[in-house]
Specification:
The protein has about 240 residues and is an alpha+beta fold. Helix content is about 60%, strand content about 10%. The protein has a 4-stranded antiparallel β-sheet with strand order 4-3-6-5. Strand 3 and strand 4 form a beta hairpin.
Length: about 240
């Protein structure tokens, strides 16, 4: 079995020699044996013990608590629980860092697409980024609620062509018109638009929004603040007026 000097075990575990000596003096890392010349020698088990001590110190446990813990009859159960907690905390931290990194990348890409750089343009990009997830949800809801009507529409058209029966199409029409009106009211109460000219966020009238020329992410509208007419970027408009 391998034996390690104080310097060697310190290097293996990424700590200083003074740290190993300190743990020895506190009685939580006693060397397995002494050489004939009085040098402290540590075993593989001591290396594992030191790694556990380093982990517990990183988890902010005080030396006295580590000493008591390692002297427990079954310290592995408590240590296992601490490892799970630390793993969860690190995963959450990584997820948060990744989210921040994604935001920085989105902001960087957004600025590349801006013809002129300004604080207002950064604000617009920030609003669009924050709105993206919520807009994705409401658009997905729009698709899901519209699928049954779309299926009924195609069924009624095919049935009319093949069988010459027109009444299923009338049923679809009677269902589609109220759904379109109600869903449009709901949708446009939950979105707003950013004016590219004055950077104000505004909500157009339902009539203008409904009939406006549009792309998946923008509509040609008249800004209520400056009067500019052009394509305005769609963003989340808050949770007010939840009921249709």
């Amino acid at each position: 079995m391998s034996k390690y000097t104080t310097g060697e075990i310190a290097k293996l575990c990424g700590v200083t020699v003074r740290t190993v000596q300190y743990y020895d003096s506190r009685g939580i890392l006693v060397p397995s044996e002494l050489s004939e010349g009085g040098r402290r020698l540590y075993s593989e088990d001591d290396v594992k013990r030191l790694k556990i001590i380093c982990f517990l110190r990183e988890a902010d446990l005080p030396i006295d608590a580590i000493h008591k813990l390692l002297n427990e009859e079954h310290p592995e159960k408590v240590i296992s629980l601490l490892i799970e907690q630390q793993e969860k905390a690190l995963s959450e931290e990584i997820s948060l860092k990744r989210e921040k990194l994604d935001k920085l990348r989105e902001l960087k890409n957004g600025l590349k697409n801006q013809k002129t750089f300004s604080l207002e343009s950064i604000g617009d990009i920030a609003v669009i980024m924050e709105s993206r997830k919520k807009l994705k949800k409401i658009r997905l809801l729009s698709v899901l609620t519209g699928l049954p009507l779309t299926a009924l529409q195609w069924f009624s058209i095919i049935f009319w062509i093949v069988r010459g029966v027109w009444w299923p199409f009338i049923v679809w029409l009677l269902a589609a018109i109220p759904w379109g009106v109600l869903w449009s009211r709901y949708y446009f109460r939950h979105v707003k638009y950013i004016c590219p000219e004055c950077h104000e966020i505004f909500r157009p009238t339902l009539r203008e929004a409904f009939f406006a020329n549009h792309t998946p992410t923008a509509r040609r509208l008249t800004c209520t603040a400056c009067g500019h007419k052009g394509f305005c970027v769609e963003v989340w408009g808050g949770k007010e007026n939840e009921h249709i």
